[in-house]
């Protein structure tokens, strides 16, 4: 068996998220079908993490093992011929036998894109949150920087009842480390970029929604430490729409590399 | 009654073209519904011309008359609130009573976009024809320039049996004047831009498909005069896919302007 690491880009609009589901098109399920079409082998590729319905990826990473011997360039080309145009394999590399895209991920970077122009072009509508009201950029930047470091992010975790405990009622740890967190102006876009050790469900969309509330003056930038300390979803702002969110990249230690 | 001229941008992917059809979503029908939602008036906006299913617009123009007095800025904002994100009103102006978006159009410009990179990003897939094989740019440019001027474009007209005659068997005129016709390299894109007095059904896609055949060496650039002289669809190349085509702009004499 050969273990593989593939890097994927996808438009999440028409998928019910990453994770395979009966009856629904998902990115994981679509990739599994393409792998089966190309190699005849039925495998379930493991992603670095799930992305929700409507969330996109510039560089999701997945791993899977195949019995078929196949050169990396051929695997990539054959998968791209089999996949729909909304999913592209950007790279395929042979990986060490123990490599696992989720377990071995050391850091991830997400981008959240806000369109600031008056009229959002139809070709961007699926990929941005169009928001034309005034925003205090400096306050949003200050708030974004306040979440850097190791914190309990319960205030930014989706309040999914089924995610509050794991197994026998053991509480899920909500502590994560954020390495970088900042906004930048890029043409007609405002982009929030966050790099961290890992992210809770909805965490980036809840951070973005909270920073937008700061930008509108509904939450003070100075209040971010209290919002985190409250460890309560209701202390933070709303969940920003999925369509503005991109999983930009996933980082691994050397052993994950070919 | 006040006559209106609106400029529209749209993503044609999920529409069955411009022209209203029972049972199918069309741009004209969607705009009519938005106008009715905003004003209560049932009108059929007249476009500068039809666009086919999957064809996009950067600047389609439509005209319609309304009884309701409404400031132009309010009409534009209200239509954009009512329309889906795939259709945007870029401008709305009061027009002279006799203005008609189709009858008064003096020139139109179309763009056809080819993606030349190795892997087409998912967010461009709906808006380009991804074509990775070698193309002779200079030959394509020479062929594009050969169609400038007044010509019978029968070789590039869709072979729709119902369009060959008009009314009582009168043959449709296939003579059109092309003012500008050229290819340009724009980053990872090759863009064909053509400005003319008017265009036959499928004409731009048939021109693009023929120039791509020239780029691949299947048709000689020097053969374009013979291709036109043949006045036969089979003398030209294939119809390029709808998704690469954009109606870029429509020009009017002064009376069409506010």
TrEMBL record, chains A, B:
Pfam families: PseudoU_synth_1. One of its GO terms (molecular function) is RNA binding. The active site is at 52 (nucleophile). GO terms for biological process: tRNA pseudouridine synthesis. CDD domains: PseudoU_synth_EcTruA. The keyword tRNA processing applies. It catalyses: uridine(38/39/40) in tRNA = pseudouridine(38/39/40) in tRNA. The keyword Metal-binding does not apply. Signal peptide: none annotated. Its EC number is 5.4.99.12. Residues 9-102, 143-253 form the Pseudouridine synthase I TruA alpha/beta domain. Keywords: Isomerase, tRNA processing. Substrate binds at residue 110. Homodimer. NCBIfam families: hisT_truA. Formation of pseudouridine at positions 38, 39 and 40 in the anticodon stem and loop of transfer RNAs. Belongs to the tRNA pseudouridine synthase TruA family. This is tRNA pseudouridine synthase A.
